[in-house]
Amino acid sequence: MSDLNVSCIQRFSTGDGPGIRTTVFLKGCNLKCPWCHNPENISPIPQMLEYKYANKIVSYGKIMSTEQIVSDIMEDIEFYRAGNGGVTISGGEPMLQYEGVAELSKQLHNNGVSVIIDTAGSVPWDNFAAVFDHTDIFYYDYKTASENDCKNVCGGDKSLILSNLNKLIIKGKNVHVRIPLIPGFNMGETDCENISDDLLSAKVKYVDLLPFHRLGSAKYEALNLEYAYKNTPPSNVDTVTYIKRIYSKYFIVNVE
Ligand code: SF4
């Protein structure tokens, strides 16, 4: 039996993969991306978010056994079956809790539920090896081709991220590479060309572009944290079309 540090369990989510899904958000991340939409999931410590405008306090973070989580999830089994849905394990960085994630994924597979793991990939390869057999799809963030930016802005290890991505693809896993479009960070032509070079070297064929939005800004306020992107406008259609054109030279591109 394994335990997981769960931030929250979101039922009937439609933005985290095909069909109707339940998303299990795990608490704790080894990166610190300043644009993060889920800042409540970065620290592994339980947190209370105070939404003053709504006069509401929400707590995030509790230890749950994989059996408890599966029992919650299975209440919606008919919805997953009807719509090609399933469970997405997100975060934070779920691969930090790979032992519990492996156990959870195995139990879900035993119940006929498909599993997506949403990762930023900056973890040892052995963590992936542990969850390999019971993961249907990896959602794999790729944010920058710059070793420096990856390290100094996000706190990640680009070589490790790229090497894990390459290994997953070589081993035949279904990997959806997702590129969050971050103004001033990875949206210039050179940034896109450099990311493309990396992804081509890892044998990637498909990419999802995630236009910039500020949906996480209320959480920063509720956490009493400064949000570096609070005045940055969402991506406009022309910019996204321009970037899509660059990536489309090399990949089949989907805009989320
Ligand atoms: S890897 Fe994801 S969860 Fe972690 S800080 Fe970056 S955006 Fe947030």
Summarize it:
By secondary structure, the chain is of the alpha/beta class. The protein contains 9 helices and 11 strands.
Provide a descriptive summary of the structure in words.
With 256 residues, the chain is an alpha/beta fold. It has a single domain, classed as Aldolase class I (TIM Barrel), CATH 3.20.20.70. Helix content is 34%, strand content 25%. The chain contains nine helices and eleven strands. The strands form two sheets. A nine-stranded mixed beta sheet has the order 5-1-2-6-7-8-9-10-11. It has a two-stranded antiparallel ribbon with strand order 3-4. Strand 6, helix 3 (98-110) and strand 7 (114-119) form a beta-alpha-beta unit. Helix 1 runs parallel beside helix 3 and helix 3 runs parallel beside helix 4 (125-131). The radius of gyration is 18 Å and the shape is globular. The termini are far apart. The mean pLDDT is 94. The protein binds iron/sulfur cluster (SF4). The site of iron/sulfur cluster (SF4) has 12 residues, from loops.
Average pLDDT confidence is 94
Classified in CATH, the superfamily is Aldolase class I
Give the topology string: H per helix, E per strand. Answer: EEEEEHHEHEHEHHEHEHHE
How far is the N terminus from the C terminus? Answer: 36 Å
* Largest beta-sheet characterization: 9 strands, mixed
| Distinct compounds present | iron/sulfur cluster
- The spatial strand order of the largest sheet comes to 5-1-2-6-7-8-9-10-11
CATH architecture: Alpha-Beta Barrel
Helix and strand composition category: alpha/beta
Strand-residue proportion? 15-25%
Q: What is the count of helical runs? A: 9
CATH topology annotation:
TIM Barrel
Globally, the shape reads: globular
Identify the quaternary structure here: single chain
The rounded Rg comes to 18 Å
